[in-house]
Amino acid sequence: MSSLPHTNGEAAREWIEMTFWRYDIGIEVLKKKGDTKEAVRNFSSATESALKAVYIKHETIYPRTHEIGELIQGCPDPTVQEVTAGYSEEFVKYFSKNYLAPYVQVKPIALEKVEECRKFAERIIEWAEDIVTK
pTM of the entire structure? Predict the structure, then answer.
């Protein structure tokens, strides 16, 4: 039996709402300001929230980390491996780094890389929403 509240389904849905909000901010920042670093930072934050929503839905306490790779590795839903298939560990580290330390990037992120990050975030968000709303 979990020590999480009985409202974990509701809490997971709230996390998914936060996920969409962060993702949308990333899109807006990219469109209005052209700030690729801030856009990727928001995509990464949205991905983190989506993964944590899945932990909550599964009544599993998530690790206190922003590291996407760690959240994927410990994810209580095994289908996460299918969703992240095709993305290298190197890419996931790069994606996380942009959230953890966006100031490391001196130059703007190339638009092709931003699009790859956006698609990765979108893929995980859609998967998480499906799990949370089942």
Answer: 0.89
Cα–Cα distance, 76 to 22 (Å, whole number):
23
- What pLDDT, on a 0 to 100 scale, did the predictor assign at position 1? 40
Contacts of 74-82 spanning 24+ positions with Cβ under 8 A: 75/51, 77/131, 79/127, 79/131, 80/51, 80/54, 80/127
Residues of the chain with pLDDT under 50: 1-2, 4-5
Residues 127 and 80 sit within 8 Å (Cβ to Cβ): yes
Helix 111-132 and helix 8-32: axis angle, to 10°?
A: 160
pLDDT (0 to 100) of residue 9? 78
- Domains of the chain and any CATH numbers: 8-132 (1.20.120.330)
The long-range contacts involving 108-111, CB below 8 angstroms and separated by at least 24 positions, are: 108/34, 108/35, 108/36, 108/37, 109/36, 109/37, 109/39, 109/40, 110/36, 111/36
Q: What is the pLDDT of residue 134?
A: 82
